[in-house]
Write a structure and sequence with these properties.
The chain is α+β, with helices and mostly antiparallel strands. The chain has two domains: 5-40; 44-184, Nucleoside Triphosphate Pyrophosphohydrolase (Alpha-Beta Complex). Helix content is 22%, strand content 43%. It has helices at 84-96, 153-159, 165-184; strands at residues 5-15, 18-26, 32-40, 44-51, 55-63, 68-72, 75-76, 98-99, 105-111, 120-131, 144-149. A hairpin with an 8-residue loop joins strand 9 and strand 10. Pfam families: NUDIX (PF00293).
Length: 185
């Protein structure tokens, strides 16, 4: 199998939130696609933040595209010259005020939608987190902090109370991490 060959590329739109690119492509069998649209986004970071008493730190915020409120893991994107690890430490502290004395554990790095998007989400795990600061939110952020018993998370996902994909996948990555550690011990 061969990769698709790009013969032309133009930007339809550019913004600080992402770009929309239109590619002209030749498929392996010679077919031509005149307009294949690609969303260029920065990578995202998110984290499962667990307290010493096994509560998961979630944030609740309004998401305009879905026109609803969502319980989510803390998340964001890296700022200039910031590593993914540095970005998630900053985002967790800003959104929740929580920190950990140990370094975040990288759980995984996955493309969000490789058919039409360029970005990945990188998921971390914070252990023994504790609230050491007040929230330090951006002017457009309105975030409530929620502590959810880790034992309740699967029920909340199954019932649809938590219905944000990156939160569900982050939870299951953390669960897999803990299950693997149990088998090793």
């Amino acid at each position: 199998m061969e990769k698709w060959r790009k013969v032309a590329s133009d930007y339809v739109f550019k913004s600080p939130f992402g770009n929309l690119r239109k590619d002209k492509l030749v498929l392996p069998d010679g077919q031509l696609i005149d307009s294949y649209y690609v969303n260029e986004y920065d990578d995202w970071v998110n984290a499962v933040v667990l307290t010493k008493d096994q509560h998961m730190v979630l944030v609740r915020q309004y998401r305009h595209a879905a026109q609803d409120f969502f319980l989510e893991v803390p998340a964001g994107k890296a700022e200039a010259n910031e590593s993914h690890r540095e970005a998630i430490i900053r985002e967790v502290r800003e959104e929740t005020g929580y920190i950990s004395d140990s370094s975040p554990i990288k759980l995984g790095e996955f493309y969000v939608n490789p058919a039409t998007q360029t970005n990945k989400v990188i998921t971390f795990l914070f252990l023994d987190a504790y609230q050491a600061f007040e929230q330090d939110l951006d002017p457009t952020e309105f975030i409530d902090i929620h502590l959810i018993d880790i034992e309740e998370m699967e029920k909340m996902i199954a019932s649809g109370e938590i219905n944000q994909l990156f939160t569900a996948s982050a939870y299951y990555m953390a669960k897999s991490y803990f299950m693997t550690r149990l088998k090793e011990n």
